[in-house]
Amino acid sequence: MLPQSYLERLTVKAKAFKDARNALKLSCVLAPIVFTCAFILSKDVIVSIICAAIFTYAYLKVKAFSFLRKVEYESSLVDSYAAIVLEELRLVLSTSGSLFQALTFVSNGDYPLISKAFKRVLNLAQEGISLTVALSKLAKEQTSETMRKGLWLLITGSRKHGLSERIWDLSALQSEARNRFTLYMKHTHNSLLVLIPLAFLLPPSMVLALTIKRFTLLILPLLIPMHLILLTLTIKLLSRRVAPPL
Amino acid sequence: MKPLKKVEATCLALSVLINASLLIAAVKLMHDITVLVAFTAASTLTVYLALLQAYRCTVTKRFTITSEVKELENFLLLWGEFMSRGENPEASLMRALSKYEGPLKGLMEDLAATIVEAGVPVKQALSSLRYKLSEKQSHRLILLVQRLIEHSTQRAGKRIVDLILSLRENRQLRESLEQVIRAEAFKVKLLCVLSGCLLAVFAYASSILAALSASSTSIMEGGLSAELSTIRFSYYTAFFAFTIYPPTLVALFMGEAKPYAYSLMCALAYIFTALLTSLLR
Question: SS3 string of chain A?
């Protein structure tokens, strides 16, 4: 599940920039190594250049993929806590009437990712930036849909005084996290359907092929790492982390 | 940093086990030891790196819900209900306690005693209760209540009831995932045993085929049986490698607590069938 809205894509791009730079640096180191290995093996410049290019492309693709997974996990984590955090914000805001106090309360709450983000907002506010401006900056950066909506409501609501009860329906706030988790459930079920044949039916059939073709056993030290790499790649492609709704 | 080291050690142990079985199998067939050792070392390194990658990307945990959390939710629901009627936390706690009958009653009576008799503030009493509960989820619930009643009691009561009802809905969702995984785990266990048996039978068949093709001339003579036993041994040890890593990886993907139990099951089925087939004449 990739981020959908334009804003989300923009955020991902901005965050990806740092990761992409690191990945590029590493690939600059790894590509010459692959090139020399391929050159020693094939003794052909063109072939080894193609090998290195393919390797670099695949490496960067895998890095981008794992980065998207990380972003997805973080936004699911924020999603699952969003309902409680927004509830607390609303409660403190309606009793004390101060946005600063509400933010301080949540930032002391030890919520993963959210408390840190709120601390950053408070630091910005202490530097002299208006609290609503700092908060809207945070809302723009959010990849979690629920949190962003809630923060925007908070920003506009704090200006108008008093928030509508109808908008803050708790089960509606949790719906994003629940949808994500239901999707994750289906995904786990389906990916096991792919993984089980690969893990359990491939080895006996490989052994059968070995027997019929009369290969010696010495091919197994080649075959087992290859099977393992195939399994690992499949697991890597299929596995994703989603924070469960609380 | 500590769990990472444990993971690395297990990966290393698994890869050494896999390649040791291959090495034992190949020693009898091949005489050039240096090439063999180099080959095995390269294979071990590859296997180790691949296993490490697999371990690192499967960090999903299973979501278990214990009865402690359920009971705590029940009690907090009562407490929140009385608080939302406008009573103060202490009085509503006493009233909830009179209505509540469950395993946590003793703990909650202690809590009421510390609040009413010793005069400890509710917030402090709750944080001492937090240390008596073992689950992380119940810690979070208590923390939430603690933070909510700091402000308005009546609204906090309402919020607590809303939150717990919402949490219950989420729990149903998680329980359905648990059911899906349990069904899959049964399937995987069955497949572990089956693939272990199948591999042993194939090892038996291929060892006979290899022996036949190696010494088609000496079938009629008595030389076959001695040669056959060594070839069979090397085939059995070689195919043993296949019983080690696939069950562990699948169990890891499912987020099982003990992924090695699956491998152990597969290996035991393999050894048992191998013993049975080697008795065949």
Answer: CCCCCHHHHHHHHHHHHHHHHHHHHHHHHHHHHHHHHHHHHHCCHHHHHHHHHHHHHHHHHHHHHHHHHHHHHHHHHHHHHHHHHHHHHHHHHHHHCCHHHHHHHHHCCCCCCHHHHHHHHHHHHHCCCCHHHHHHHHHHHCCCHHHHHHHHHHHHHHHHCCCCCCCCCHHHHHHHHHHHHHHHHHHHHHHHHHHHHHHHHHHHHHHHHHHHHCCCHHHHHHHHHHHHHHHHHHHHHHCCCCCCCC
